[in-house]
Specification:
With 230 residues, this protein is of the alpha+beta class. It has eight helices and 14 strands. A hairpin with a 4-residue loop joins β11 and β12. Bound molecules: zinc ion (2 copies).
Length: 230
């Protein structure tokens, strides 16, 4: 059985007609009288809710920039007039700070978490620990081979003044060091030459044998840190 494929242009036209039947002209404004959810107007497109203000704005002035949000500039919160709705970009730092609880001296992370319980944030494209993301955003690049250590004792604190970049070697001399790019190159070369065993390389570079194996097989993600670093 062949299903009819949706025609995007026809769908958009039908949506525009539907939206027009739900807005009323009040002065200069086009006020939404359709359904709302949490104070925001919406209209159903297939099974998704879309913002009628966005639809009208995009029909009138083209697609919004990636990551842009809408802001109504007139006094009518439900206004859909494309002239009264502007697009604003939310900066990366604002995105991060929105998820922080500033009620005390510690900045508590309210956003998503990794299964390990550490805050999970996006500053650039990759997910990383929230404390690290805020450090990179407000302090600067994390030095190579370092991780972000929370020094105030509050696990979910992401205050950049309460953390420091510490060399990534675990307690009791455990081999948890993060290899530098240079070391990764050296290990790969040594592995190709085949003169040293995995255990010898692990010993030499102060890494665990499993990390050495992953580096040699090319499954170790290297360069992510350097790419992120600003
Ligand atoms: Zn208006
Ligand atoms: Zn703190």
């Amino acid at each position: 059985m062949k299903r009819k494929r949706p025609n995007p242009a026809a769908e958009l036209h039908a949506l525009a007609v539907k939206i027009h039947s739900l807005i009323y002209k009040v002065g200069d404004c086009l006020v939404w009288r359709g359904p709302t959810r949490r104070g925001q107007p919406f209209v159903k497109l297939r099974h998704e809710r879309v913002d009628p203000r966005r639809v009208i704005r995009e029909l009138a002035l083209g697609p919004l920039k990636r990551g842009a949000r809408l802001r109504v500039t007139c006094n009518e919160a439900m206004c859909c007039s494309p002239v009264h709705v502007t697009e604003t970009m939310r900066s990366a730092s604002m995105r991060l700070l929105r998820l922080v609880d500033f009620s005390g001296p510690h900045w508590l992370w309210r956003g998503a978490r990794f299964p390990s319980g550490h805050g999970r944030a996006f500053y650039t494209r990759h997910a990383e620990r929230a404390a690290r993301a805020l450090y990179r955003c407000f302090v600067g690049a994390v030095p190579e081979g370092c991780y972000i250590k929370v020094k105030c004792g509050v696990d979910s604190c992401v205050n950049p003044l309460h953390v420091r970049a510490a060399p990534a070697i675990g307690p009791l001399g455990l081999k948890r060091k993060i290899p530098t790019r240079d070391e990764v190159e050296k290990i790969r070369r040594a592995w190709k030459d085949g003169e040293k065993t995995n255990a010898q390389l692990a010993e030499e570079f102060n890494l665990s044998p499993s990390v050495v194996t992953r580096i040699a097989r090319g499954t170790y993600r290297v360069g992510r840190k350097s790419k992120d670093a600003r």
